[in-house]
UniProtKB/TrEMBL annotation:
Residue numbers binding Mg(2+): H134, D176
SMART domains, per the entry: Pribosyltran_N
Record's subcellular location: Cytoplasm
Chief subcellular location: cytoplasm
Xref: NCBIfam families: PRK01259.1 (NF002320), PRK02269.1 (NF002618), ribP_PPkin (TIGR01251)
CDD domains: PRTases_typeI (cd06223)
Cofactor(s) required, per the database record: Mg(2+)
Function: Involved in the biosynthesis of the central metabolite phospho-alpha-D-ribosyl-1-pyrophosphate (PRPP) via the transfer of pyrophosphoryl group from ATP to 1-hydroxyl of ribose-5-phosphate (Rib-5-P).
Broad class of enzyme this protein falls into: transferase
Protein name as annotated: Ribose-phosphate pyrophosphokinase
Organism: Clostridium magnum DSM 2767
Zinc-finger as UniProt keyword: no
Catalytic activity: D-ribose 5-phosphate + ATP = 5-phospho-alpha-D-ribose 1-diphosphate + AMP + H(+)
Length: 319
């Protein structure tokens, strides 16, 4: 239980109520009394059934599929709390949707990650707490504080506990050139070398393996990515690694988006085990024996406690 000179309340939208309950439970609290429903024409209705005047409100809502519904729920709830005179509103977004649209890749592209940042601020959010943004520069799209949590320490701890730390036959692999920094930080925790898959992407959600940079012959490899969507990149990478001599392939990610053909691709791939964090609610129909899901509730609970008590969040990730 945390104590302070002001009240604190945790509320949840419909995207991941179980995670909100876990976070509140760790903090010795219960989730606030609110209801988000829809009218017959699809418009979202929000009822907040307890006072939030002067309260430090933390609203837990991932903006995964259905992305637009979950985003609108978040915006409308923020507006409701703002108009109810909440003292401070923190949007707790374990998964930040639209993060891949972070730049103009070609002429006339929108920068939707920036647009989402603007409308969250316009709705009345005073602060954002999120994890593993697809592009770190998205923090700069906001004119309000953003606390950016890291999923890699949770994933690395799991593999260390499995005995993968400081093993000579373990190699951490980046699935593309853009994930090299993430893979290197992960490898440092395991005291392992890294390898890189050099690929090109002819069109969206389609990847083609080109080359493996590094020694993976007869090695146990761990593929590290921030998110798995259609699973083309991670499964093509895993299959290529085995063809090129890897002994066995494990994979891990922070955000298990798992859309379209992802489940079938993973099931048929060379991946022995896929370790994921529960930033997105994984329904029973998507679960399989290959999956291991780790909870982010403890790290979000600690971050919320630190924000509420005006203590630094960065110390969470200091070795």
């Amino acid at each position: 239980m945390i104590t302070h000179g002001k009240n604190i309340k945790i509320f949840a939208g419909n995207s991941h109520p179980d995670l909100a309950k876990d976070i509140a439970s760790i903090l010795g609290m219960s989730v606030g009394d609110s209801k988000v429903s829809t009218f017959s024409d699809g418009e979202i209705s929000v009822d907040v059934n307890e006072t939030v005047r002067g309260t430090d409100v933390f609203l837990v809502q991932s903006t995964n599929n259905p992305v637009n519904d979950n985003l609108m729920e978040l915006l409308i709830m923020i507006d409701a709390f703002k108009r109810a005179s909440a003292g401070r509103i923190t949007a707790v977004m374990p998964y930040y949707g639209y993060a891949r649209q972070d730049r103009k890749a070609k002429a006339r592209d929108p920068i939707t990650a920036k647009l989402v940042a603007d409308i969250l601020t316009a709705a009345g959010a005073d602060r954002v707490l999120t994890m593993d943004l697809h592009a770190a520069q998205i923090q700069g799209y906001f004119n309000i504080p953003v606390d950016h949590l890291l999923g890699a320490p949770i994933l690395a701890k799991y593999f260390i506990q499995k005995g993968f730390g400081e093993r000579e036959d373990v190699v951490v692999v980046s699935p593309d050139l853009g994930s090299v920094t993430r893979a290197r930080k992960f490898a440092d925790k395991l005291h392992a070398p890294i390898a890189i898959i050099d690929k090109r992407r002819p069109k969206a959600n389609v990847s083609e393996i080109m080359n493996i940079i590094g020694d993976i012959q007869d090695k146990t490899v761990i593929l590290v990515d921030d998110m798995i969507d259609t699973a083309g990149t991670i499964t093509n990478g895993a299959n290529a690694l085995v063809k090129m001599g890897a002994k066995e392939v494990y994979a891990c990610c922070t955000h298990a988006v798992l859309s379209g053909p992802a489940i079938d691709r993973i099931k048929e791939s060379a991946i022995k085990e896929l370790v994921m964090l529960n930033t997105i609610n994984l329904t029973e129909d998507k679960m399989m024996d290959k999956f291991k899901v780790l909870s982010v509730a403890p790290v979000f609970a600690e971050a919320i406690k630190r924000i509420y008590e005006d203590n630094p969040v960065s110390k969470l990730f200091e070795d």
